[in-house]
Amino acid sequence: MGTLFLRVALLAVALPAAATEDTDMLGAGRWEINLGAAQELHVGSRERALPAIDASYGLGDNLQLLMAQPFINASEGNEGGKSGLGAATAGLKWRWLDAPEQGYALGWYPRFTWSPSGSSSARGVAPPGHSLVLPLLAGFRNGDTGWFAELGRNLVQHGPDQWRAGLKVMQQCLPQLECRLELDHARSAGTPGQTLLSAGGKWSLTPSLLLQASAGRDIAGVREERRRLVLYLGFQLLR
Predict the structure, then answer these.
(1) Which of 27, 45, 60, 180 is deepest in the core (most CB within 10 A)?
(2) Residue range 224-239: average pLDDT?
(3) What span, in angstroms and rounded, lies between the C-alpha atoms of 14 and 49?
(4) In this structure, CATH architecture of domain 2-238
(5) Can you spell out the DSSP letters for 120-189?
(6) Segment 148-196, tens digit of pLDDT
(7) Neighbours of 110 (CB within 10 A)
């Protein structure tokens, strides 16, 4: 059961709310809503978030709120699938340094995660207790290319704390297509950690509606615990 708790917690890496964050902001009064599905495949187990929903709101030019809530279905071995509300997340992104002339920005993005359903925790579809991620953000843009990095500590109530790091490169491949390559790493004391490599993109269907998708897998960590495949597909609404 402990392994399943860990895998359900790591499923958040596949969601837009928890992947490597950039330093871009929505702007005051603007909304970004993501609705999609994520899935992780391991040897002998599967975790799926359907639907996976998150919403961000711009409080100003340099301040942004986040709320996220997935519905999780998880199965392990020969056991039947278990479903319920997954861990909810609330976050606040603050871009405290913006130097557009030089092309770089710095920010801070604390995120608090908890289980809104005690029964979901008891059945293993949401991790028990709560956690707090305290990452610093850095971004650099040059023309149609952006590089973004995230580094911080994940303080976990019922489990070992983690160091988490991420690197994302974005390139405007076509006028309507933004390509992305990401590397995300999480490590607890005394463990080799897990490193996820993923690629994906966003396709602008209209100025306010985008289709986004990504696929990846763990390239480092204990072989038996690696995620064999991590998928995300969904829509993003901007307004």
Answers:
(1) 180
(2) 93
(3) 9
(4) Beta Barrel (2.40)
(5) HHHHTSS-SSEEEEEEEEEEEEETTEEEEEEEEEEEETTS--EEEEEEEEEEEEETTEEEEEEEEEEEET
(6) 999 999 999 988 999 999 999 999 999 999 999 999 999 998 888 899 9
(7) 14
Contacts of 6 (CB under 8 A, 6+ apart): 127, 159
Q: How confident is the model at residue 18 (pLDDT cuts 50, 70, 90)?
A: low
Domain ranges, ordered by start, for the chain: 2-238
Instruction: Tell me the C-alpha to C-alpha distance, in Å, between residue 138 and each of 93, 94, 152, 213, 216.
Output: 12, 12, 12, 23, 23
Bridge pairing between strands 162-174 and 63-76: unpaired
Band the pLDDT of 19: cuts 50, 70, 90. Answer: confident
- Whole-number Å distance between alpha carbons of 69 and 115: 10
pLDDT at 4: 47
Strand partners, 227: none
User: pLDDT-derived band of residue 79, with 50, 70 and 90 as boundaries?
Assistant: low
Coil, helix or strand at residue 20: coil
